[in-house]
C-alpha cells in the first residue's frame, strides 16, 4: 500500500558482488510487492557494451520452485568529450620560392625553415577514455618537391606513436 525504503547490504558471495535486500519478515502468504531498484555502479569504462544483473527472490522458508531468477542486461554508454588543441611555432611561415632542398646535406638549415607543431589532446570528461587513435596528416610534399621536411615526432603522457615512413629520411 505505502512506499518504504529497503535496507540493503552489499557482500561477496562465491567471488561475486551481491546486494541483499530484506523485503519483509514475516510476509503474509499471497502478498504481492513491487520493488524499484536504483543501482549506482562505478568503473564501467572498460565493461564493454552492457552490464548484466542476476536478480533472484529467495525465501528463508523451505525452498520452493517460485524462487526463480531473472537476468537483466543494461546497455552501458560511457560519455567523454575530447578536445584537440594545437599551435605552430612560428604561427605563420612563408617559404621562399627560391629555396631549394640540398640533397645529401645533414645540416638542418639546408632542409628548410624550422616549424614546430604542438598538439594537445584533452579529455573534458565526464568519463575516462582508452584506446584513442589520433591521426595527423601533414603535407610534406608538393608534387615531387619537399614542402616540409619531417624531422621528428614525439609524445608525452604515456602515448604510443607510429612514425610516418617519410620521417627524417636523410637522418639529419
Automatic annotation (TrEMBL):
Example GO BP: cell adhesion mediated by integrin
Topological relation to the membrane, as annotated: Single-pass type I membrane protein
Domain Integrin alpha third immunoglobulin-like: 83-171
InterPro entries from the UniProt entry: Integrin_alpha_Ig-like_2 (IPR048285), Integrin_alpha_Ig-like_3 (IPR048286), Integrin_dom_sf (IPR032695)
Domain Integrin alpha second immunoglobulin-like span(s) in chain numbering: 3-76
A GO cellular component entry from the record: external side of plasma membrane
Entry keyword Glycoprotein: yes
Source organism superkingdom: Eukaryota
PANTHER family: INTEGRIN ALPHA, INTEGRIN ALPHA-IIB
Protein name per Swiss-Prot or TrEMBL: ITA2B protein
Organism annotation: Pteruthius melanotis
Amino acid at each position: 500500500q505505502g512506499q518504504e525504503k529497503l535496507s540493503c547490504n552489499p557482500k561477496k558471495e562465491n567471488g561475486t558482488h551481491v546486494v541483499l535486500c530484506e523485503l519483509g519478515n514475516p510476509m503474509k502468504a499471497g502478498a504481492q510487492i513491487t520493488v524499484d531498484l536504483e543501482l549506482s555502479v562505478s568503473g564501467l569504462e572498460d565493461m564493454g557494451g552492457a552490464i548484466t544483473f542476476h536478480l533472484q527472490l529467495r525465501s528463508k522458508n523451505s525452498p520452493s520452485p517460485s524462487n526463480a531468477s531473472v537476468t537483466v542486461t543494461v546497455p552501458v554508454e560511457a560519455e567523454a568529450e575530447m578536445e584537440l588543441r594545437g599551435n605552430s611555432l612560428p604561427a605563420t611561415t612563408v617559404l621562399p620560392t627560391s629555396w631549394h632542398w640540398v640533397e645529401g646535406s645533414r645540416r638542418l638549415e639546408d632542409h628548410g625553415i624550422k616549424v614546430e607543431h604542438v598538439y594537445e589532446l584533452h579529455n573534458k570528461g565526464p568519463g575516462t577514455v582508452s584506446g584513442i587513435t589520433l591521426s595527423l596528416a601533414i603535407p610534406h610534399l608538393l608534387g615531387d618537391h619537399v614542402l616540409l621536411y619531417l624531422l621528428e615526432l614525439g609524445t608525452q603522457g604515456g602515448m604510443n606513436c607510429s612514425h610516418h615512413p617519410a620521417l627524417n629520411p636523410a637522418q639529419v
